[in-house]
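Quick note —
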Amino acid sequence: MKELDFPAERAEQRLYDIWSFVAAAVLAAFYLATTVYISYHRLLWWDELFTVNIARLPHWTTIWAALAHAVDSMPPIYYMVVRMFDKLFGYGEVAVRLPSSLAMVAGMLITFDCARRLTDGLHGLVAFSVLTCSFLPYYGYEARPYAICFMLAALALWVWTCTRGDRRWPAIFFGAIFFLGVTFHYYFVLYLVPYALWETTRWRPWHPLSRKLIAGIVGGVVPAALLSPLILSFSHFFPAWFWGRPSLWLIGKTFSDLFPSGLLLLALIMVWIVFVSGEGKRVVLGSVQPSEAVGWLSLCIPLAGFVAAELTTSAFTARYYIGALPGIAVAVSCCLWRHFSVEYRVTLGIFLLLASAGVAKQMTGVRDPESVNMNRSQTLTRQYMNVEDSLRQDGKRFILVPGGMSLESEYYLERPEEHILVLRTSPQGSWARKFGSNLAQYFPLHYWELDDLKRHARETALLMPTSQTLDAMKQSGFKVEVRFSEPMEVVYLQ
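Predicted structure written out below.
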């Protein structure tokens, strides 16, 4: 393999590079089209509705104030981007998810080009197909900033590996990417870990790569300092047990989440290599070059996230480490290039296997968009919409929903400002009550106490009440009548 730190123009342009560009473009068009299709046919769920409600607040200062009250965990820039797309393309599921869809496809193409420059077009396609077998396609049709973080991580890797080192602009560009990345997600700073690990083992002050690392550190620290009031507000408000509490079990689960079918695909790849690789051919392996090494070191990003969660943030979940994917994909391509550069049947078969697996998985979502059912939110929202008319016919003016469905109810049902209410049964001063009060300042949510319920008991239906809620009803003297048990439990009060 050629020197990867400072790649020069290739002496010869291989003929199949032309079709590799065509193949990458076709795959990119396929994933963009299918992602938009799934976005159109899939309801928004709880996390996405946080994005929508914040992005549609009256002014950017209101967005900042809402985040200062810890109503969501993301920096404000992402909501500004969603707000712009929302206004340009009309209010709907596709518009708010379109930034993620475009970013996902752009990141795939950047990763392809990065691997292509380091190896050749076929191995660039392998990098592209590795991404399609990860959990990345899901975040192409979710209105959260993870696909954008992936795209910026891919761009950072491209700048690190595919730019000449004798100029200052690559370092400036690298730092600017990390500045922008932290404004989309605070954990983006962890994507510096593979570069820092590589450089600290061979520190060369003011070497071009060292300059990039310094620029990246500065680029990550500055926005974190500027956004520190929001970071501190969120970290102080949410208890350590709220979500994603780090554990050793979660570390292993994180890697399996990154590549849900990774073990099966790896087994098939090894079988293919055994059957296809030639006998008696001696291949002189090159050493692992810096670009491949940095790619493999991307596997340390979740480990660094675990340490950060244990020490400070208390939040550890696989999607925060989506920025590891470009490095892993490029490392796989470079590794195959070193081992099988003279056995193109091996690489071609691996590409076809991975590409087919990714396309098949994507087509599953196209055939049944609601099969992508995060926390059963699609099913519950559809069921709620189906029973709404029956409740109205029974004279129920008010419908009380559990807190986990409050945003879906408010968004999808008719006259939510009049009819969708959330019962607050948690003790006075509890964290859940404070969080609900925070949301109510900025989201169109309505809360009742038990006294409110007593005044309107005969006009109210309880949707999927918890045992805590039913116990509170009975202790307050209500008689409980189950109106529906399927498709979901609905209770009337007397």
